[in-house]
């Protein structure tokens, strides 16, 4: 933190990437937990231990379609009288006596007195008699009360990310809501006089706004509820109005464009004027110009406008911030160590993130360039499996050297 501020007094100097990233993450915490319905809570991090208040299964029941019997009455070729039928959802019924059986379906309660199930496959029915092919074994094909979950048991621990199986288990014990860290509401805002909506007719000097779409999609992939706002021109007043409007509905604000050293890069000025947002030159490529700070209590990332700079900046700064807001402690995507197949270059004093394709050879990952590496080249982001990190103290890595690759997906 202190380091960052010292450097900020000399804006021409590059700030070391990891320190900068840490100083941002240390200022962001999990969102206040709220109760959410099970399906809304899916994917969120639990903010409480969850205890079962019922047994699962709630009563002893049959695991098979077949016959409920008393073990002592059974042997190969024994004939028992079918005295009743038990379907799933039926009440437990009358006790069975000597020489009796109940035709029973999977999930039906076991009649009192029965202590085994003979599956239909092991018996033949004649009128009201059933002839067994085998002797039954005590407790066979019976699911006892609480076999799965016992009332009073802690079944999910705070800090756990709720998966599909968890949702099922919560439903099974009758929970309708759980306390979780909510999905952050992210507002994404592209700025620039040259920007066009994808559906607008072309005009000279214009480019289509790719970033707000990619960033909104990235935020959604990161577990946020993300909204894209209309393009804002490079105009002080309109920027200010747009930011103020966005703030009313955001837990986190992401802007793109207007944080470089150009004449009309007003975003950093407007953000600095509205709140405690600072502009930095970070020792990374792509993505050197960065703005970060708070507008009131809302963290705000002012990302650069070059499409790949914005994309990589999201991966490096925004994704971990969004994960932390969701109560996650695994802030990073997986990374692998790979053997480099192509030479890769990086400017002095900057960490470079180069788009690479991965493949596995004899159990070892190899990385090769995913194409042109310019900060406007989206095609190589589309092609890439990950970002190869060239350390700050290297200007080249050569074929055969090891490189850390940050995956652009959550699993490989
Ligand atoms: P800036 O960061 O505003 O100086 O923009 C740097 C470069 O990125 C310029 O070539 C812009 O036209 C381009 N750019 C800025 N914003 C976007 C955007 N939302 N979509 C695509 N390109 C953009
Ligand atoms: Mg611009």
Structure report:
The protein has 412 residues and is α+β, with helices and mostly antiparallel strands. 20% of the residues lie in helices and 31% in strands. It is built from 9 helices and 29 strands. Strands 8-5-7-6-10-9 form a 6-stranded mixed sheet, with no helix packed on it. The chain has a 6-stranded mixed sheet with strand order 17-14-18-22-21-19, with helices on both faces. Strand 25 (351-361) and strand 26 (364-369) form a beta hairpin. Helix 5 (211-221) packs parallel to helix 8 and helix 6 (236-247) crosses helix 7. The two termini are 34 Å apart. Adenosine monophosphate is lined by residues 190, 192, 194-195, 207, 209-212, 256-258, 260, 262, 265, 304-307. Magnesium ion (MG) is lined by residues 192, 257-258, 265, 305.
| Tally of contiguous helical segments | 9
Strand content: 25-35%
Query: Portion of residues in helices?
Result: 10-25%
Which radius of gyration do the C-alpha atoms yield?
Answer: 31 Å
Strand order of the largest sheet: 8-5-7-6-10-9
- Beginning-to-end CA distance, first to last residue: 34 Å
| Average pLDDT figure | 95
Number of strands: 29
Low-confidence residue ranges: 1-11
Quick one: biggest sheet? Answer: 6 strands, mixed
Give the distinct bound molecules.
adenosine monophosphate, magnesium ion
Overall geometry comes to elongated
Structural class: alpha+beta
């Amino acid at each position: 933190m202190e380091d960052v501020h010292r450097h900020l007094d000399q804006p021409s100097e590059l700030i070391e990437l990891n320190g900068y990233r840490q100083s941002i993450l240390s200022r962001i915490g999990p969102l206040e937990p709220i109760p959410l319905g099970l399906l809304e809570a899916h994917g969120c991090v639990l903010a409480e231990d969850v205890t079962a208040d019922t047994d699962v299964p709630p009563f002893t029941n049959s695991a098979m379609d077949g016959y409920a019997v008393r073990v002592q009455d059974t042997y190969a070729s024994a004939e028992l009288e079918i005295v009743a039928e038990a379907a799933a959802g039926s009440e437990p019924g009358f006790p069975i006596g000597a020489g009796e059986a109940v035709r029973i379906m999977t999930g039906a309660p076991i009649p009192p007195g029965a202590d085994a199930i003979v599956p239909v496959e092991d018996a033949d029915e004649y009128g009201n008699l059933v002839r067994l092919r085998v002797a039954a074994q005590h407790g066979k094909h019976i699911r006892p009360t609480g076999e799965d979950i016992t009332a009073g048991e802690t079944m999910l621990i705070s800090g756990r990310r709720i998966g599909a199986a968890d949702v099922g288990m919560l439903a099974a014990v009758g929970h309708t809501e759980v306390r979780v860290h909510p999905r952050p509401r992210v507002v994404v805002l592209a700025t620039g006089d040259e920007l066009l909506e994808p559906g607008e007719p072309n005009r000279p000097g214009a480019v289509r706004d790719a970033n707000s779409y990619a960033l909104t999609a990235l935020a959604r992939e990161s577990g946020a509820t993300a909204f894209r706002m209309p393009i804002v021109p490079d105009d002080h007043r309109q920027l200010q109005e747009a930011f103020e409007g966005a703030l009313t509905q955001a837990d986190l604000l992401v802007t793109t464009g207007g944080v470089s050293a150009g004449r009309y890069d007003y975003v950093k000025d407007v953000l600095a004027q509205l709140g405690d947002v600072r502009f930095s030159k970070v020792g990374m490529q792509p993505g050197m110009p960065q703005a970060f700070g708070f507008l009131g209590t809302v963290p705000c990332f002012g990302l650069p406008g070059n499409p790949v700079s914005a994309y990589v900046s999201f991966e490096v700064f925004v994704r971990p911030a969004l994960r932390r807001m969701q109560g996650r402690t695994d802030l990073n995507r997986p990374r692998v160590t790979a053997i480099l197949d192509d030479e890769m270059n990086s400017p002095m004093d900057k960490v470079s993130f180069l788009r690479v394709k991965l493949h596995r050879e004899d159990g070892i990952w190899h990385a090769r360039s995913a194409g042109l590496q310019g900060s406007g080249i989206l095609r190589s982001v589309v092609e890439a499996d990950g970002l190869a990190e060239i350390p700050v103290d290297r200007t080249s890595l050569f074929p055969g050297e090891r490189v850390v690759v940050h995956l652009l997906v959550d699993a490989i």
